[in-house]
Amino acid sequence: MSNTPRPKVVIIGGGFGGMAAAKKLRRVDVDVTLVDRRNFHLFQPLLYQVATGALSPANIAAPLRWIFRKQQNCDVVLGEVAGFDLDQKRVRLTDQELPYDILIVAAGSGTSYFGHDDWPALAPGLKTVEDATETRRRIFSAFEAAEREDDPDRRRAWLTFVLVGAGPTGVELAGALCEIARHSLKHDFRRINPAEARVLLIEAGPRVLPAFPEDLSAKAEQSLRRLGVTVRTGVMVTGIDEQGVDVRSGDQDERIEAHTVLWSAGVRAAPLADRLASAAGLEQDRGGRLAVEPDLTLPGRPEVLVIGDMASFKHDGPKPLPGVAPVAIEQGRHAAAQVKRFLRGEPLAPFKYRDPGSIATIGRAAAVAEVGRLRFSGFFAWLMWLFIHVMKITGFRNRLLVLMQWGWSYFTYDRSARLITGEDATDGQ
Amino acid sequence: MSNTPRPKVVIIGGGFGGMAAAKKLRRVDVDVTLVDRRNFHLFQPLLYQVATGALSPANIAAPLRWIFRKQQNCDVVLGEVAGFDLDQKRVRLTDQELPYDILIVAAGSGTSYFGHDDWPALAPGLKTVEDATETRRRIFSAFEAAEREDDPDRRRAWLTFVLVGAGPTGVELAGALCEIARHSLKHDFRRINPAEARVLLIEAGPRVLPAFPEDLSAKAEQSLRRLGVTVRTGVMVTGIDEQGVDVRSGDQDERIEAHTVLWSAGVRAAPLADRLASAAGLEQDRGGRLAVEPDLTLPGRPEVLVIGDMASFKHDGPKPLPGVAPVAIEQGRHAAAQVKRFLRGEPLAPFKYRDPGSIATIGRAAAVAEVGRLRFSGFFAWLMWLFIHVMKITGFRNRLLVLMQWGWSYFTYDRSARLITGEDATDGQ
Questions:
Q1: Is residue A130 flagged as an active site residue?
Q2: Pick from B40, B94, B97, B117: CA 20 to 30 A from residue A46's CA?
């Protein structure tokens, strides 16, 4: 085999799925090219801790080149995919073309605003490092603006935080925001009392953490209320502007004055999914995802695998697997195994997902978790959450730094990574 | 005194000088208002470590409110100064007015490009967190662009780093850049050899570290050359564009092709100095600084003190004190002492500066230091540098985090805070 060129595997996306696939190909006799727009892998589940000033972006990111520095068969390319030529088996980047024998597409997902093009600027999502530092800027600028404001109504609007969407991210943000208002900023202001801040968690569905079992949702809601979060389920956001949000509950319209609105109500497959769909002549589902075969390949393209948040994989039943890290990682590993089968000329194997369970944290020292039939909540679930997240962070240095900062914050409520940075840092908004 | 309103001290700027003054007024019976555009104090001497991916911005910053949370007589105001009404004793912010009995102006300095208005965009300085993340983006994007470039000349231009100005910042950046090229990125690329990067340190004066004694300058230059830095003294930059720099040495013109140019050749007092000068009807020196009386007050305004980088203070001889942290800190403390004298109706005392010495580091484990008549270089000086800087960082948490990350980097050369972030993160430039 040494004289024939080695098969080329191109992986698009260095998130959980793409990284897992590339790592798993370490000892396989192929040339792996990992393409990403960013030079780092990001541990997205902890972005909310950057957004709330507990961690720095670099603590939850690891340079992709560093991750693969010793994997000689893996070449990292920093680049943007412009399109696909599936018949010629080529990926077009903006400045080069990459031929492949096998293509693994794992470009993840972004925030969806359901067609409201003006909402992203009004209510940032939480998918990128820039989202997190922008959210951080808004949160801490709001307290500053409230301190400068004499009018009680306007002050109240600055101290009102509306979180749209009560999935894990919304719940985690809500808990952290209450902790900031009640503890971290306790002694910091002279005119306002930060503890008067209102944190509203708005969810269109009937309960928080809709992906969790009902009893855990109830527990989470209880914990949130205990922290001081105002939980509003069955409430739809119908409008957002710079002064607040319009919501509807049943046939009741309501206006909430709030300068800080954060969005975690919808995700959509990365725009690359649209290009891949049109190149392959395939349909996408409502979330922009591509339906994949049981073996993770695209219909009619056995050499193209789609994994993670971009793939709509129906396991048993009509609901596709959720867009979470464990699914992406397992699919990434499976994709790597498929590469081996493909090269040996063996038939590909269907992907089987063994759900490791779900876990979400609610403020300090509380969490809810579901592992198989077991359900946990409270402090023990929180310890589980802590352990899982620390172990999964890439790089020993980051694990140590995160653990140290968490330990420190736990006892001091200190959130000293709360820098207001960016262009108009003194703007108030 | 309890029924009369307490005297108001307004301090502009939460850098080394302003922070020192405010802290020193802790037990004085005055109302202190500390105004800053940013919500944090920044430990500027370590900005180059953020720019080179060794530390995160939050590691060298501390929220001003947090610093003063327990100092009840100190109110922190996040705001931008729009002007001064010195006769009415008022500072105008963009959204409010602050009356004062005593005003301490300590707004620091920014980067000076000597009138070249297009240079800031081409060659960022290193004064703010945004400068540092932008520099970091450029440095690591350049290696990425080189990896994608096939043309050897263009590749060479991507791997050429021109640092303009051989003061402590330029010297520190040069050392760190060589370490990155030779060690941190050693295994990261497949096409380029990062060690081929050229680091040019350009200085218009006759030697590096012009503020140090000649023998230490020579030692520093030796260390820099050993690290692989190309030191060019007596060389003036005459032009900068996106492809490189034009320089002149004697009457020899030369062109250096380089995509990354970093500027630390000039500082200028913050623009606020201009407003203060025009309000007070005073002249500024070439660096925009205001000449202050021996007691740090503005001529004719005994209730207005100017300290730190904005002040031109002539000690003995014609040269004003340099714009370094120790001067600002000592002047801040002296300003606080003046406040006490002012309130007691005592005459103000002249400021006396006891130079604690200078220290600059050159890459890992080397530094030069001057303490009184003693001069150190090499490893011992570096340990001194390390100790001083760690001790001076605000906040125990940050001290611990910085020390840990330094320890880690020292043994592993790891620079995993090397995130390419910001708007056009995939742009190459």
A1: no
A2: B40
CA distance B220 to B156: 27
CB-CB: which of B39, B69, B140 is closest to A144? Answer: B39
Which residues in chain A have Cβ-Cβ distances shorter than 8 Å to B96?
A: 148
Which helix (H) or strand (E) segment is A332 a member of? helix A325-344
Tokens matching residue A170: 């919304």
**How far from B264 is each of A416, B139, B308, CA to CA, in Å?**
29, 15, 19
Which of 91-110 (A) contact B at CB < 8 A? 95-96
Contact with chain B for residue A337, Cβ under 8 A = no
Which residues touch B121 (CB under 8 Å, ≥6 apart)? none
User: Å from B148 to nearest chain A CA?
Assistant: 8
| CB spacing of B419 vs A65 below 8 angstroms | no
What pLDDT does residue B121 have? 96
Give the model's pLDDT for residue B423. Answer: 59
**Which three-class secondary structure state does DSSP give residue A94?**
coil
Q: What is chain B's pLDDT, residue by residue, as a tens digit (429 residues)?
A: 456 789 999 999 999 999 999 999 999 999 999 999 999 999 999 999 999 999 999 999 999 999 999 999 999 999 999 999 999 999 999 989 999 999 999 999 999 999 999 999 999 999 999 999 999 999 999 999 999 999 999 999 999 999 999 999 999 999 999 999 999 999 999 999 999 999 999 999 999 999 999 999 999 999 999 999 999 999 999 999 999 999 999 999 999 999 999 999 999 999 999 999 999 999 999 999 999 999 999 999 999 999 999 999 987 778 899 999 999 999 999 999 999 999 999 999 999 998 888 999 998 878 999 988 899 898 889 999 988 998 888 888 889 888 888 888 888 888 888 999 885 443 332
Give the end-to-end CA distance of chain A in Å, rounded to a whole number. 61
State the average pLDDT over residues A75-83.
Answer: 96
The answer to whether A194 and A182 are in contact (CB under 8 A) is: yes
Contact A39/B420, CB-based, under 8 Å? yes
Q: Write a three-state SS string for B413-428.
A: CCCCCCCCCCCCCCCC
Cα separation values, B266 from B110, B131, B172, B247, B273, Å: 9, 15, 16, 16, 16
Cα–Cα dist B65/A303, whole Å: 57
Using the Cβ of A349 and the Cβ atoms of chain B, whether some distance falls under 8 Å is answered with no
Of B66, B129, B414, the CB nearest to A421: B129
Amino acid (one-letter) located at B235: V
Q: Chain B residues with CB inside 8 Å of A138's CB?
A: none
Question: Are the beta carbons of A426 and B80 separated by less than 8 Å?
Answer: yes
Q: Give the domains, in start order, of chain A with CATH numbers.
A: 8-37+79-111+268-344 (3.50.50.60), 119-265 (3.50.50.100)
pLDDT in tens, A104-137: 999 999 999 999 999 999 999 999 999 999 999 9
Task: Compute the distance between CA of residue B233 and CA of residue B249 in angstroms, rounded to an integer.
Answer: 9
Distance set, CA B347 to CA B8, B296, B308 (Å): 19, 13, 22
* Residues 4-63 of chain B whose Cβ lies under 8 A from any Cβ of chain A: 37-40, 53, 56-59, 61-63
Alpha carbon dihedral A197, B14, B131, A260, in 10-degree steps, equals 10
Partner residue opposite B416 with nearest CB, options A58, A130, A140: A58
Report chain B residues whose CB lies below 8 A from the CB of A58: 53, 56, 416-419
Which of A313, A414, A413 is CA-nearest to residue A355?
A313
The answer for B 140-159 residues in CB contact with A (under 8 A) is: 140, 144, 147-148
What would the two tokens of residue B43 be? 């430990």
> Which of A96, A131, A109, A71 is CA-nearest to residue A272?
A109
